[in-house]
Each structure stands twice: as structure tokens, then as C-alpha cells.
Amino acid sequence: MGPIREIDSKLITETVKRLFLEANTCLGADVIEALQISLAREESALGRQVLARMLENAAVAKEESAPICQDTGLAVVFVELGQDVHVAGGLLNAAIEEGVRQAYGEGFFRKSVCDPLSRANTGDNTPAVIHVEIAAGDRIRLTVMPKGGGSENMSSVTMLLPTAGNEGIRRHVVESVLKAGPNPCPPVIVGVGIGGSIEESLILAKKALLRPLGQKNGRDDRLNDLEQDILADVNRMGGGPQGFGGSVSALAVHVEMKPCHIASLPVAVNIQCHVARHRETII
Amino acid sequence: MQNSRSIKTPLTDDLCASLHAGDMVLLSGEVFTARDAAHRRLQETLQRGEALPFDVRGAVIFYAGPSPTRPGRIIGSIGPTTSYRMDPFAPLLMEQGMKGMIGKGKRSAEVVAAMQRYKAVYFGAIGGIAALTARCVRSADLVAYADLGPEAILRLELVDLPVVVVNDTQGRDLYEEALKRS
After folding, report:
1. Which of A96, A103, B53, B95 is 20 to 30 Å from B107 at the Cα level?
2. E strand or H helix at B136, and its extent?
3. ipTM associated with this complex
């Protein structure tokens, strides 16, 4: 273990704020490239017009520093906290919440968080959803992900039979995407979490969405094959961009996996719309 | 969008009957935003026998909750939200004379049947292009439910909003037809 490094909570607030401001207004280069590739291979004329407008929108949003989508999402934050870090001047979670509050205020982002029963808006898009993991070292990796409600609503976790195997998982994920249809703003990215406990499978599915598009699954060749098979199945369904018909219903399928109980096979599917927003940095 | 037909609100029975699933349309004129919480209030208003806060006859409702308006701008980013959440309320509003809905995603069998019965149309707008869609909005005024924040009802004046007819007055469904074609 190295010497303890102090990180001012204000730096965490400023960093979270900057990342959310960027994520909500500036679509990632990987998503833009994926949309361009899709535009070239989309067979439907209407589908191509839809994809072209998505690319045009990304340019307009960046130029105007305007939200890419009016749904600037629930603020999800992944933190990898080096165990040699001491956060000074305030609580880690409070610093993150403050960064969210400032970004959603100054960015003129929609506040989309409410009390589940009264539906009263909290007014500043907090609380954020914060996942903290302890890592080695004296740094903090912060990953922010504004997550829209429409695609989140089409997500699920299911406990398959342990004997379902590759084919069972493939069929379940394809059916989930087909059932979601045009609702989550296709072309979508499909995050799949296999294994772990029920909650871990969901976190794996969400983390799978953070992998840059176009990057192969480096962990396991079996997962890479599964991703390609599911993607091919989904794009054969014909829904296309926005479900108006076409050959690009999904931009990618990303699978993450961990060992699970011998009696279980949790499979979580977290759907992401084409406005796939996330930003990360290390401080 | 190319090969689009231009139409203007309010919509009439004849105009609705002439629109078919798959038609690309540039929609102009007055529309009203309303989403989840606003729909619940509209339903409660009708249940109490009171008048709705706007004239729904011939009206088009845009299922949308824009991001806040920056100083000097007409509106923030705006786009369709997923429509099925408004399904429980849509037939009641069609009964009152609503002729069009703009949103994204599938509708229930009840809503599709009500569209045939009341000669109304469901338009799909492109989701996730809200900075671009804001450019089709020429004015925005608060109509009701300011306390709902992003869910308040606004009157928008639109110019050439690109939409696609998803469900028409004959009961056709573009989403279903797209899947069958593959």
C-alpha cells in the first residue's frame, strides 16, 4: 500500500459536473461512427433518413451545447475508488450529488427524478444512482451515464434454467429486444449481464453498455460469439431505425459475465437507446 | 424528410382518413404537449365533469416533456416520449375529439381500435433527436399544470415537424408491417 493521497471533494464535484455536461450534449465518437456505419448499410430509405437525422442532431446538439435528447436521464455514476485515497472536505456521495445538481442546473437539463408514489419532482435530478467499488491505487475513476427512462423501461432480469445454455440465453435476449420493439428508440445497444446474483447480473448488464462501440469483447471468445449471434438475430427482425422498418435495429450487443450459483442462471438485459451517453475520467 | 406530405393542424376526419401507415408527413400548426401526469389530470378533470384546459376537438397531442428553455430561446430540446404509458387515457381523449397523437413506440389494441372508431391518427416522431426537433418549434406557451415542471401542458406552434404515420384510421400498424416484411 502506498502513501495516502488526499483528493478534495470539490474536485470530485467539478469533475462529475463537467462529465455530465459533456455527456448530455456531445455524443461519443464511437456512437457517431456506429451511426455512420449503419447509415451505409441500412437498406430502408426511410431508415437511412432517420439515421441521417440522428447524425445531424448530434452535430446541432454539440454546436449549441444543447441536450442531445430531452430526456437527460437518471444520473448513474460508477466510481472506482483507489483504497489509498482519502476524500477530504466532504462525503464522496455528497460531492457526486452536488456535481449532478450543478450540471443539471447550469446545463438546462431536464430534471427527471421524482418521488415514486407522489410523483413530485425532486427538482435537481438528484438523487443520483452511485455504484462504488474499491480498487488498488491512489486514484478515482469516475464514469457518468445519464440513462433515459424509455429504454430503461424495456429492461429486465430473468432467472433462466441453469440448463438453458447459450441457445436459451440467445433466444431470451432476442425475444426481449423484439418485445421492446420501437419503444426504446432503436437502433439500440443491448447490454447483457449473465451470472452473478440477481443484482450483480443487472450491474453487469449496465456496465456492458459502457464498453466503446466497435470494441471486441476482450474477456471471452464465447461472449464475443454470443454478441455477434444475438446482433445478427436482432437485425434480421426488420424493425429498423425507430421501428419504421429496416436492417439496423441494434448498433451492438455487449455481454458481461460472472460465475453464478449452480442452481441459477441470471440473465439481465439493459437496453440503451441510440443516444448512448457516458463519459469517464481518472482523477 | 424526402417525399413527405405537408399537413396542418387542427385535423379533420377527412384529413385523418387520407393518411396511411407509412406516410411521411411534415406537420405544422398548433399542438399540445402532455405526458404521464398531465394525462392523469385531464382524465380527472373529465371525471369531475369539468372542461379541459384546452380545446381538444381536432387537436394533436405531442407526448413530450422538453428540457428547460435557455434564456433567449423558444424551447429546450424536445422529442417524443414512449406512447404506451398514455394508452389508458387516449381513448377518452379521442372520444372528446382529439384527432392526432405524436409519440414513439407501440400502442395497445384498445387505442388502435379507438383510432378507427374516432378517425384519429398516431404519428411516430424520431426519438433522440431533440436538439434538431426544437428547430421545428416556433412558439411555446404554458397552457396548464405549471407545477408539473417538465410535464406541464404547453401549446406549441410547429413548422414542418417530420413524422411518420404509424397507426391509421383503417387499423393498419407500420411497426407490425415492418416486422412482417422481414
Report:
1. B53
2. none
3. 0.95
